[in-house]
Amino acid sequence: EMGHMRSDNVTGSTIFVGSGSGIFFVRTVRAALAKHLSSSSEVVSEMVPGEDDHVHPQSPPNSLWNRDEVDFSSPDQIQVDPSITFDSLVRWSESYFDIWHPPFPFLHAPSILELFEKVASHGVSPLNSIESIVVRSVLSIAVADRRQLPACNETLVPSTLIFRSIEDAVSCLVPILIQPSTISSIQAAVSIQVFLLSMLRLNTASRFSGLIIQMAFHLGLHRCPTRYKQFSKPEADMRRRLFWSIYSLERFLVQSLGLPLSLKDDDVDVCHPQEENHLEDDGYGNITYPPHELFLLPEFLARNSQIKGLILELRHKNIKFRVTDPDEVARIDAEISRWWNDVQDFIDPVSTEDDDLYTAEANATITHLKPCHRLLLVVQKHEAVILLNRPVITSGSSIAIAAAMQKCIGASKAIISIVFQHLQNSLRSEGSRDGRIQQPLFWPGFTWCVWMSGLILLYAASDGCYSVSVAERLANRCIKILDNISLRGGFWPGACAATIRDLQQALQKKVEND
């Protein structure tokens, strides 16, 4: 664990970013090209996406949304707004259930629809604080999604139904803290966290993780619900979905910020939906599981998150406890391959059919998985390769290090090419001129992956391990991708694009001088 300790001149405190985030590599790349960087290169280019939310300029309470995104003239919460109907609430929240709910099904969709019916009939005031948080989180995420989706003539969401600012969202933590832990309250906390993630406020979202994980422990979510007879089948399913959503989100945050794991695998015995090991103890007899493909997406994300945890424990532990056994590296590499082989059968089931028969079952799986979710799974594979190999590519020169460099180059090229192709195909097929597409680059991790891929290729080119011209061309693609992600309105995609642009220019100067 190298990491980096910063002094915060604003608060007078310190900020630590662990090397799992890539911060040590970022500083190494900048050092390699330092004498060719312009003096105007900003300090923020030595930061990792989402590490500090205070770099966002101070803003008025309502500035999170524009006037053409939210209706600020709506009545207060005491009055019933006749423009808020059940159908309008369903339409406003459509992108949340299309994009965010499939990978992270921590909410019970029918229960959300019941809340919508209550709001449509009686307004917001009858909702308790927990119910209000969930509704506002879902609709706030959906409003942010609109920035990346094609323009529509839908009416604006009233400001009473969303978070007006990041501070407004964070302040909702108070009722969660003062009430006893329940499934509903932890769902509300996770819903705020997902909103913060969707806006790339990773530092703030990570602070929620501590509360969420302790609540999960209090509720016993880290224990497989099938072991306990007091849970009905629907309750057990919901607890399992909630836990693995929390787990995947936590692993994303600790990797992005280089923090120690909060959820250790040896403290968890919750089974995946398709790998239940406690049926003999549950007393239910024959259990009929939901359709196979419904929970494979979150299951694959959770399994990939487990691999991320193995990598963080291998590569970024305290130096006294760090293991450098090549067999452990090979074991994790095998886990990545095993996971990817299973994912390929899921995202491309037709290729596994005998005699090229296009079965109804295979077709159902393909139509169920949206292109943006397929892209997420593919990127996760190459991201894992980078996470495993990147920490050693600046360690000197040896055959093992050279091999790790080439693996990082291959994974970086794949991420940039796959994401860029998804973006270009969508823009072309939809005729989009403003960058908005039906299957947007929604996942906040896309920013980190594309940014890190660009840095790796530029570093490899500067070190003579890769073609300079190809690295520059792929860096241009990184910038275009990040510019598209910037449509959502966050600070970091644009900052990451600027960093790549600076390093690209520095590489050009280095080549000219050499």
From TrEMBL:
Single Gene Ontology MF annotation: zinc ion binding
Keyword check for Nucleus: yes
Entry keywords, A to Z: Nucleus
GO biological process, one term: DNA-templated transcription
One Pfam family it belongs to: Fungal_trans
Chain ranges of the Xylanolytic transcriptional activator regulatory domain: 205-279
CDD domains linked to this entry: fungal_TF_MHR
Protein name listed in UniProt: Xylanolytic transcriptional activator regulatory domain-containing protein
